[in-house]
Amino acid sequence: MSVSTFNLWPKKLVIGQGSIGQLGDEVKAFGAKKVILFAGPHISKTKIVLEPVQALKDAGLDICLFSSFGANPTDVQVMGAVEKIKEFKPDIIVCIGGGSPIDAAKAANVIYTHGGTLAEYDAAIGGFQKIEPKLLPFIAIPTTAGTGTEVTWVSVITSTEKNLKFGVLSPFLIPDVAVLDPDLTLGLPPKTTAYTGMDALTHLIEAYVSVVNFPIADAMCIHGIKMVRDALPVAFADGNNIKAREDMLVASMMAGAAFTVNNLGLCHQMAHQLSAYCGLAHGLANAILLPHVMKFNLPANPKKYADVAEALGADIKGMPVEVAACKAVELVEKLCAELGIPRHLDDVGVDKSLVPAMAITALQDNVGNTNPRPTTVEQCEQVFYCAFRR
Length: 390
Ligand SMILES: [Fe+2]
Description:
Blueprint: E1 13-15, H1 23-28, E2 34-39, H2 47-58, E3 62-66, H3 75-88, E4 92-97, H4 99-114, E5 138-142, E6 154-159, E7 164-169, E8 177-180, H5 190-209, H6 215-237, H7 242-262, H8 266-278, H9 282-297, H10 302-311, H11 321-338, H12 355-362, H13 377-386
Parallel strand pairs: 1-8, 2-3, 2-4, 4-5, 5-8
Antiparallel strand pairs: 6-7
Helix pairs in contact: 3-4, 5-6, 5-7, 5-9, 6-7, 8-9, 8-12, 9-11, 10-11, 12-13
The structure holds fe (ii) ion.
């Protein structure tokens, strides 16, 4: 028998339409008086940010708004945020935005409270052990339903020197509070809804079939897959459907909690390269690759893929497990088609000659070291090639 310890769960969740209205109370619960509020640049002048800012001011709090993070935040941008924190000296950090600003704010919190440079905290060189429980309180408020970073222990930052993404990881990076308000996601365009939603589905499937089998995470994955199955097509077709928007936020959050424990797999290893080499949106890269990675992984654990098929809505009663497992691939392909996602990497301008280099760097990405099927560079290349039309 082996003993496993998991300390990677969300700390406090506030969920529901209008929950952003509780932000002032959540801030005051920490005894805070000075709030630095990080926000994505596209929303910093919209009511998504301006209304909470006004509400916090009305509650007598001193607010500083910072919105200089781009997509795929860099170490340079994070250090700029650290300077702002040093200048303002807040006693709490709040972040409203997608995965990029939340990741950047997490990283800025580490540097502000620990000093040094971000490279020193790269998880690949043991940075994990340098992060202590002395971060500023952190409240994360997602405006997309996909990354799950509002409940994860991860911050992904791009090194400007190496042009590579690296992870800063620590249980202490899990936000103290995550506020999931579907009103904040109503303005997401259908394409962004589809890409981010497919990122969440990929998290759920990869965490479920991972070689780490934490039972609570597994249960969240199956329930999350069912929620995405029902809610994502609705949110895509009718962006104002509050129930679908809320269900996608909850499913995305559960995915984040699940993969924080179970980790991910080959699809994310490969998708990270498509973003780094070709600038593909993360969710789009996952969506195109996912059926191909599933086909490759099926023989390693057909029972788990049969479970995924059932959660996606297949009637698998009486089917041999290998046949039921294949239904999972068919249903993911059907969902992608329904969401108008391009099927092939040539459709989105990926240069096939990059495959050998991408396959090598993919397998160096430890986000997939829990993939159910051990993978060689040649096998990874073949999975990439399967995703091309010709
Ligand atoms: Fe992802």
